[in-house]
Amino acid sequence: MGQRKASRDGDRKVGRRALLIGGTVAAAGSAVLARDELARLWWRTPGVEKPREAGAVDYQGARWVAASDANWRRADRPDDFGIDMVIVHVTQGSFDSAVKAFRDPGHKAATHYIVRQDGHVTQMIRELDVAYHAGNRDYNERSVGIEHEGFVDRPQDLTDEMYAASARLTARICARYDIPVDREHIIGHVEVPGTDHTDPGPHWDWDKYLRLVRRARTTPA
Question: Is 23 helix (H, G, I), strand (E, B) or coil?
């Protein structure tokens, strides 16, 4: 979560790319594009919701605790917004305080996952949905956010159990969306353009973390 709450990422209007509807469609390719776009966006029509399975998680072993609806936006990722990043956060507080904040509609921010110091993983927002975690709409739409219990100025909070559990989680996310395991695609909140957050902080060991993620990528789930 860093230094302060992220600003709300408001809803994007239907139609990420303009659809040329009406008139004569000269090229067959344009017709296919329009059909595919409409197929992805049908459920955004007022009164229509995409079917969801209550309590479902995207990462085996994670515990589901729902974030407030005010802290994320329904989507159909990666079909409407491609996922090409994982963003690493540190909670600047306890695990329980982070869960409480993400369940609070007044907080206006939440990540998809929280990793506790003992390695326990909680999922609060589905990966197909857009979490308000980066303070940048484009980065929110393209990323999965992972919080880690602790404080940026306390290296003892960054436990081996937390590193290992988070690396396994990130490895599965990268495998699912074909995200390269490198520092261009696995970044800290501090690296998001326009942010004033400092997490994961100077004590986060990126070399260790990427090494663990790469190792987990080659280990059967």
Answer: coil
Among 187, 216, 201, 193, which residue's Cα sits nearest to residue 87?
187
pLDDT tens digits, 47-93: 555 677 889 999 999 999 999 999 999 999 999 999 999 999 999 99
Which ranges of 52-159 would DSSP assign to H, the alpha helix? 95-102, 137-142
DSSP for residue 154: -
92: left (phi over 0), alpha (psi -120 to 50) or beta: left
- Is residue 139 classed as helix, strand or coil in its secondary structure? helix
Contacts of 130 (CB under 8 A, 6+ apart): 9, 72, 73, 74, 75, 77, 81, 140, 141
Secondary structure letter of residue 150 according to DSSP: B
Among residues 96, 197, 56, 57, which one has the least CA distance to residue 139? 197
**Cβ neighbourhood burial of 195 (10 Å; 0-12, 13-18, 19+):** buried
Give me 1's structure tokens.
């979560």
For the packed helices 206-217 and 160-177, what is the interaxial angle rounded to 10 degrees? 50
Q: How many other CB atoms sit within 10 Å of the CB of residue 204?
A: 19
CA 136 to chain centre: 12
Task: Give per-residue pLDDT as tens, 110-169.
Answer: 999 999 999 999 999 999 999 999 999 999 999 999 999 999 999 999 999 999 999 999
For CA atoms 184, 187, 189, 190, the dihedral sign is negative
- Number of residues written out for the chain: 221
